Amino acid sequence: MKRVGWLLVGVLMTMGAAPKRPLPVPPIPPAHPPSVQTAPLPDRDLQAPAAAATTGTQLDMRNFRVPNIQQGMGYTPGSQFRTSDDKRPVQTPGLTVRVPLQ
Hints:
By secondary structure, the chain is largely without helices or strands. About 15% of the residues lie in helices and about 10% in strands. The longest helix has 15 residues, at about 1-15.
């Protein structure tokens, strides 16, 4: 226990002897501050473009297991939880069939 105490004292003494870092230069305010203006607002009357109407059945081939990288959730940057399906070397594509109901 004494060794740990002496080690702690030695570490604290070496950290205390480190040179102080200079403070960064604060930002300089502009010579002419901007005039008082209201913030821009989004256009409330704006509408989304009309979607192209599809009249027939559509068949599409796609990869259903697209990699979904999520940051956070307690994992280190660049890592994430992987299921057994994600570990497969070849991802099988699938077919999507869309049939309009009228």
